[in-house]
Design a protein that fits this description.
Structural class: mainly alpha
Strand order of the largest sheet: 1-2
Radius of gyration: 17 Å
Distance between the termini: 28 Å
Order of helices and strands: HHHEEH
Largest sheet: 2 strands, antiparallel
Number of domains: 2
């Protein structure tokens, strides 16, 4: 299968996956797809969606793997912090995320992936 045919195949598979509501693991088992290949193509298409050009196959993915997560201290928000900045407040998987009006979209995408929302 050529690179173009492979890309077209995975675009169709992942379009169906994103609409399915299944986890990557569940979808791979249902469709009998190789899990690692599926994850790789998800990263490729998510990077393109966020305006990041695809790197060579040997490059390290930008989305952190669970074994490479770094723990950081998050202080509780100050009272009224979100009231005057016209931002967005999200509650995802028990985590509250406060976004300023000019938040960084690619970073939010990575955060959503880490939380298992995307």
């Amino acid at each position: 299968m050529s690179r173009g045919e492979s890309r077209q195949y995975w675009a169709g598979q992942l379009s169906e996956y994103w609409d399915s509501g299944f986890s990557v693991q569940e979808y791979c088992e249902l469709k009998e797809l190789p899990f690692e290949n599926t994850k790789r193509w998800i990263r490729v298409f998510e990077k393109e969606r966020n305006g990041v050009p695809e790197k060579s196959a040997s490059a390290t993915p930008e989305v952190p793997e669970p074994s490479r997560l770094e723990m950081v201290e998050v202080k509780p928000p100050l009272a009224g912090l979100c009231s005057g900045n016209s931002g967005i407040r999200l509650k995802i998987a028990g985590v509250e995320v406060l976004l300023d009006r000019d938040f960084d979209g690619p970073s939010l995408s990575v955060l959503l992936s880490v939380l298992g929302v995307r």
